[in-house]
Amino acid sequence: MRVTVDTTQRPSHKLSLIALSIASVFSNGVHAADEINMEKVQVFGQAVQIDKALNEQRNSDSIESVVHADGIGQLPDDNAAEALQRLPGVSVENDQGEGRFVTVRGLAPELNAVTINGTNIPSPEDGTRAVALDVLPSELIQSLSVVKTLTPDMDANSLGGTVNVRSLSAFDHDGLFYTLSAEGSYDDNTDQTSPKGSGAFSNIFSIGEGVDNFGVAAALSWQKRDFGSDNVETGGAWDFDGSPRLEELEQRDYEITRERLGLGVNFDYKADIHTNYYLRTLFSQFTDTETRNAAGMEFDDPLLPNESGDGAEGFREVKDRKETQEIQSYVFGGEKTIDLWTLNGQIGYSRASEDSPGHIAGAKFVGDFDGVGYSSTSKPTLNAGADYYDPASFELDSVEWEQQKTTDTEKNIKFDLARDFDLQGYASQVKFGGKLSRREKDNDLEAWEFEDFGTNDTSLAAYSAGNVDYSLNQFGNGISSSAVEALLNKLNKADNVNEEESRINDYVMNEDINAAYVMNTLDLDDWTIIAGLRYEGTRFKAKGTGLRDGDYQTISSKNSYHHWLPGLHGRYYIDDQTQIRAAWTNSVVRPTFEALAPGFAIESGDKASFGNPELDPMTSKNLDLGIEHYMGRAGAVSAYVFYKDISDFVYETDVSKSGGLFDAFDEAITFANGDSAEVYGIELAYSQKLSWLPAPWNGLLVGANATFSQSDAEIEGLGQTRDIDLPGQSKQVGNLMVGWENDKLSMRLSANYKSSYLSEVAAIDKKDLDQYVDSQTFIDFGASYFLSKNAQISLEVKNITDESFYVYNRSSSYNAQYEEYGPTIKLGFTLTNF
After folding, report:
1. CA-to-CA distance for 521 and 11, rounded, in angstroms?
2. In angstroms, rounded to a whole number, what is the distance separating the alpha carbons of residues 437 and 414?
3. Which of 103, 229, 564, 594 sits most deeply, having the most CB atoms within 10 A of its CB?
4. pLDDT (tens digit, 9 = 90+) per residue, 17-43?
5. Which SUPFAM superfamilies match (predicted)?
6. DSSP characters over 236-252
7. Exposed, middle or buried, 442 (CB in 10 Å: 0-12/13-18/19+)?
8. What is the value of pTM for the model shown?
């Protein structure tokens, strides 16, 4: 038997909203009168997750979408990113077939923010602000939400939405709770199996003179996954003058071992009915060991499909590295009420890092070949003779050796003070506060390049490994990383330091933000109105190294800016089940660290990439209007329209031959501010359990949501302007879910769709070289069966249709990158005590 409680909150001239508990009757003919006499009912399952999420969404002051754990502490997916992609307007960017970065309303991950237990989370990667949410195992999480309209007491640093992660608290359960899980998965692409283990525990204790006033919760998750992918890419090396011709292509095979470790320990203490304190801790470690073998061809002259040419340079290359990302977060805070006053305070410290010890960044073997070409422009297949697959045809050209360490640290302190008062008979609350945030991003790269190998054997035959398991074409032998490392051990590294790469990629950036706000909430008959103003002042400085006319120069840059950000939220209650929401908000999104980097990197004599520390932040004026209606078990339908007026959007572009320093390069990738952009659209959502249908159909759950948006942006340069879509913005995002459950069995079939989007802007006069990510549809299936009240088995199939990742130029006919991963099958067992 399963019973849920649907809590509706609506003001009745009280700021403290009243909860109306409505019991619903489901299987086995249970009557409402029986439910009233029940002292406690245990609930779990898909419908419970949806019910809890809808109640939080319904009662939020903001327009918000929520994913909640069920009654036994389980989120619907393995990691935070994949759980969030089920929400309206939310999709994920995948890496090696796994959901990692979250997009909201079609807007790119770097335009959104991530907080864990109320504190911002920095990014472990050197160039981005986006946080890869696959580092957060679902076992550590009680709920996830995406706030799409920010109130003045929230950081204004997101355009699409702010992802809030709330970890497990002991007070989420009554008394002792624990769950233990074991899982095995199979990767179809590599025929590898992988283990996973996890557990969570919480309990409530009585200390001092209190009763049940101290809670401890802990969660641990470990996974080691062996998998891989097959890739073919051109990198956009098309000549579109006349009939499109290809200049080069590369086949890649990835073999990856990915290990995750997550640990969270949380404490809650209720000193008395007016005072409580909490400590939230999180540690997450994500280690990738990756070997990438590549086989490619650079044609002497650009070729048409099925055309052959002589004098081409073929190459074989290996990259082998181990990379460890860590995220640590510690949040201490508390709340105290004194009469009509409520004081909240919080201190947060977060540190993210990425460590790549010494590794082969690229060992390249080359040879000359005649009579080579390719077929197909969308998934190019290399056509070459037997000599291309003979290791004796290649000689070692160069080896790059690198080590890198990136750290991103944020410290913050904030307080909020609120007072309830009566305004001519209506309940009201004034709230004000401030926040100080100090962030430092540090990158240190050391590089070596070897081109003189003395008398050592440099034939590929001396360094060959076995044949590469590559599904897209014939590949040939791989390269032995250990053999290359043995060669480097014979050479003097001190004589081969790449000073240019080592110095110009090092930087330190500091970003200090001081914020303050004031806001007032008023319950006015059937209205709730929130009006306020937020101030954010930013001081930014960066220090790095540049290379001009053969001399290294220290580059220091400073910037400061101030933003006053008003906001107005309104909620109108048509009845107990229906409400209209409207919001006018303002936000500011700062450029990525890659865009702000003070140095520049020369990749070869005619190619370079530059940061731009003088970039302005992106600002946006946002309007949202919508209606929500709640109905029955796990039931809701909603519709929202939104509009964003954006200034100074940041985009990546090619500024070669545009004057000054950039004249020396055929390709010069940097970042620039666009003038203005608009994003507008509609967001629709529906979910419900069809409990009124006759058995067994009364176990059906359905859910669907879709976001349709449009963006208009303009860029300028070289005396020209052209219109583009906002980079990273998908015009259509949608989800469809069909589930079924009873007391023992739960099943779910889900589909997630994201349309194509512009990923990289080429030079203003080279529109054909813009790069687009193609649309994707992922279909997943999951099922779980309760062997007993406390034990269940589960089966999950990810990416059933073997969806690929595809990037193209000009149109979907012209490949920039194609990659496929294969399905993954998971089988698990969970033991729970509650």
Report:
1. 12
2. 9
3. 103
4. 323 222 332 333 333 333 333 333 344
5. Porins (SSF56935)
6. T-EE-SSS-EEEEEEEE
7. middle
8. 0.85
